[in-house]
Amino acid sequence: MKFLVFLCAFLLAISLVNANHYGCGTSPCGVGRICHTLRGFCSCVEIVHCLDVNLRSNQMAQWRDNSGVLFTQYDITITNYLDVDITQIFIGTDCTLELRDYQSLWNVVRLPNGELTLPSYQPSINKNASYTFGFIVKGDRLPNMAILAVTY
Description:
Layout: H1 2-17, E1 23-24, E2 27-28, E3 33-38, E4 41-46, E5 53-64, E6 70-80, E7 88-93, E8 105-106, E9 109-110, E10 116-117, E11 130-138, E12 145-151
Parallel strand pairs: 3-12
Antiparallel strand pairs: 1-2, 3-4, 5-6, 6-11, 7-10, 7-12, 8-11, 9-10
GO molecular function: carbohydrate binding; extracellular matrix structural constituent
Organism: Dictyostelium firmibasis
Pfam family, one: CBM49
């Protein structure tokens, strides 16, 4: 069962990266790859081989409002495993990130194209450290997310 959940999450991440417009030079990295820039050198790394950074989700709470609508609060932790600070990161999402309302997203910025990135008050993620952002969504499904690009 755990394998099936992992496989589904992996395939979902790959489908999110399908729309990845980040790349090295003039060509996008493409399906199943992250645009990875380290010390000025850009490369397209397959998601399964990118062990430098990851996203971890944690369901924090769940409740129904007075009209019976179900809401779930999640924290997402970005972990930097390298000895270099992350200076930029872009996380792809899709329509499954259905926020409760405009104020139901914190510690991250949602760009007009729907991608998530670090806020101005958190310009980097320190080496060998983590950063957490959160949101409240309608329903109980964890939204689809995948790292599209990371710069160190």
